[in-house]
Structure formats: structure tokens, C-alpha cells
Amino acid sequence: MLNNLPQHVMTLHQSMTTDMAADGLPAKLITLVNQRGMSVTLMDIGATWLSCCVPVTVNQQTVLREVLLGVSTLNDFYQQQAYLGATVGRYANRIAAGQFTLDGEHYQVSTNQSGNCLHGGETGFDKRRWQMLQLNATEVQFSLLSADGDMGFPGNLQVIVTYTLTENNELTIRYSAETDKPTIVNLTNHGYFNLLGADGEQDCLTHKLMINADHYLPTDQQGIPLGELNEVEATSFDFRQLKCISQDWLIDNDQQQAQGYDHSFVLHPDVRRATTACATVTAADDSLIMDVLTTKPAMQLYTGNFLAGCPNRLGGEYTNHSGFALETQFLPDSPNHSEWHDNNPILRPNEHYHYLTSYRFR
After folding, report:
1. Does 327 participate in catalysis according to the annotation?
2. Is 0.85 topped by the overall pTM?
3. Residue 106 catalytic?
4. Average pLDDT of the segment spanning 143-158
């Protein structure tokens, strides 16, 4: 199967397994391929999405284009701090001061960014070795047991993440989890995309973006919510109609303090059944379109504002805005905002956490 893949994907299988992982063993990689030639490469460290090659027709010629930012060695994967393509948890995004109260009990979890908990803390799910099981040629499943007290979070949490590549060039990621003690859970994938090609030569700000959301969440300089949701109407955060990301770039304080977009949008209720796109992105030359579909209530738009210095696949470094992320999730710090009823991250025994997100290319 590997012989039919793009050269850099075949090379990836070799280069990513040369260095040893933190546990002294090599990483395990798998590539899913559909009948149309799209390929997706995944790794057991971090249950990470490493590569996404999509057929694109240019000048009546069909080529495979790499659209996912990534690295080519495991050492670089450990060095980068951008969570490239990784599954993040136990709680994606930020928890203020790493503190929350659940059923009257106060918890302090690991803090790793400006005194807050980001993406699960110092050693989040992105750094763990997951158990990998290939279900068939187009589907692979990753499982992880996060023990009670892991990074300070309560409950033994069993997590399963399943990647499925369909024949209509859609990658669906299903997240499921169960716990034996009340806890909080918020899982997402932190893939960065550039539909013009993920070599870092062109920034993502020329992409056109639509987000099906009427409200966004203002934050402070550390990305912690200020509390109130804002209407996108008459702001730079209005992406209800397809517009260039750069159109209203840095025109307001919310963007300026984040050096771009790094904000959550409350998705319109109509799109939370994963039957209609919650977001659509179009390459500047209209050569490729990506739809995002999800059952999660919110989505973080991050325009790679701090990617400079992050290693790329070619032995060089990405620059700021080399790619954008669309992270489907609960709103940041939602354990401390019970008023956000649609964003309740609490999982209890005998309940089942189950959400999905799909990335469809056309």
C-alpha cells in the first residue's frame, strides 16, 4: 500500500520512526487511503494526524496536495509546542488558573501557560502513547486510559478516538469517553491547515472563511474568557458570509491582544448535527474547499499567530500564520461558567461522552 503514496508520506513512515519516543520505543504510523487517492497518516503518539494529502485538479492535471502542517521527525514533534495535528485533552483550550469546582469539591489541575491549564496541562494527551488498532483499510482506532488524578483531573477516564476516511474525501473523527467518577472532558484535534499547500511558503490569511455562528467569546490577553458572549454583527468576527481572513485583520482590540484570531465561536444550533457545515474554507485560488461538520457546540479559530520557529517537514521552520486551526470543542473555561448550558463539560459515571467532527475536501 505504501508504494502508491506520495513520496513524502512514504518518507514520513521512515523518518518519524527513527527517533525513539519518551518510553524508549519507536512511534507507530498508519496511512489510510481511499479509492480517490486521498491519504491520511496517523501516529500513536498523541493519536496525531500527521499528514493529509488531497487530490486537487490544477491546469487539468490532478495532483496530491499536502494540506496539513506537520513535522518529519519525532524529535521535532516533541520540540514543537503548537500541538500540530494532535488529539488534545483531557480538557482542550484553557481553564483559568487550572481551577474548577465540581459537586462542591475544588480541583487544581496542571498549569502550563501563563498560570492557566492549556490543552490538558503539562503532559496532556498529545504527549501520550495511545493504543492503536486498525479496523480496516480506511479506519483506525486509538484508545487511552487516563488514570484518576492524571494532571489533577478526577476519575479514571477511558477515551477512544476513531478516524474514518470516506470515499467522498472526508475524514471523520469520533470521540468517546467514559469515567468512573464525575470529571470534565473536552477533546479536540489540533490540526493546522493550509489549502494552498502545507510547506509554509504561503500564509493562510488569503483563505476565505465562513463560520455559521452569531456569537463569539471575547477573552483577556491570556485567552481566558471575559464572561460575556458578543454578537458577531458589525465586528471583525462576522464570518457568516464567506470572507477573506485578512479582510478585517487586527482592526479591533480583541484581535490585537491575541495578534490575530484565537477565539471561540458559538455554533448555530442548526449545524450541531454534523449534517450541515459549521465552517467552510476556500483556498485563495479556489482550487480546494474544506467543510467542517461537527456535533460540538463551539469552535476555536486560531490563525497560527505564534507558529514562528515551529519546525516544519522540510527541515526549516514555519512562520506565523502558516496555517489555521478550526478546533471543535466546548467553550474555554466552561467548567467555571455554568451559565453556558450548551457547553457543559461534566461527564458522570454511566454517561457517555460522544462527539464527532468531519473535515470534507472538495
Report:
1. yes
2. yes
3. no
4. 98
